[in-house]
Design a protein that fits this description.
277 residues, mainly beta, Immunoglobulin-like, eight-stranded mixed β-sheet, five-stranded antiparallel β-sheet, 1 helix, globular
Length: 277
Amino acid sequence: MHRSAGRAALFVAASLALVACRSGGGEDKPAQKQAPAPAPRPAVKAEIKELEVRALGAGEAITIDGNLDEPAWGRAATTGRFVDVGSGAVNPAIPVQGSVRLTWDSSFLYVGFEVEDRTIRGGYPPAAKDPHLWERDTVEIMTDPDGDGDNRDYYEIQINPQNLVFDSQFDGYNSPNGGGRGPFGHEEWTAGLESAVKLRGTLDDDADKDEGYAVEAKIPWASFAKAKKAPPAPGDAWRMNFYAMQNNGGVAWSPILGMGNFHRASRFGRVRWAAAP
């Protein structure tokens, strides 16, 4: 559900049942009572999510080891629990769940994912370059730095439980993508990130009960060469989205609501950068 032309778009099936009751039509026949109409379904909330992300304070530092245990992470902005990409609601039935925390400084964006997953999957060669991580387990960061959600010059970064990375830069919505066969975007682009993964379970082993994994990363602002301004200034807003994925589906910070696939930048949330407290 991630790629177009082989990476199918997500759609929400929403319908309202209408009940019509026809009467017999003769004056000598008593009027028939109409069956009560079903209650309308609640409207899906389509507003764009927003998150204020404060910079690290003076003297604060984050070590990239996958533990997310520094005091700075405790004060970092958090998305809260991810939601169903189609409905926008928390959905415990989805086999992967997640959340993410964010902070930044003048050199780096810091991202910390916490993922719940009872069957942690890797399965890629250890030195794989830009493997298709969305086909198994991964976290994903989508970034449209201009903040307008127009899908021009945006970036995709994925990190899986093996700490392998897929990173690419796109000119337009899912473009280029090799006619759905790849390469997906400009895969020669690199985020230049440093990342670490902490497993709560055993990779590719169903003999035990997995709990999930954490991903910690710092991404140089300098990597976002297409951004109008990087690092951002306090008050700037970028469009971003975050996913925890399994087998080409999953949960998101900001739901897509059937308006495209996971690349639809108009459905990304707004991350507003703020100065240190």
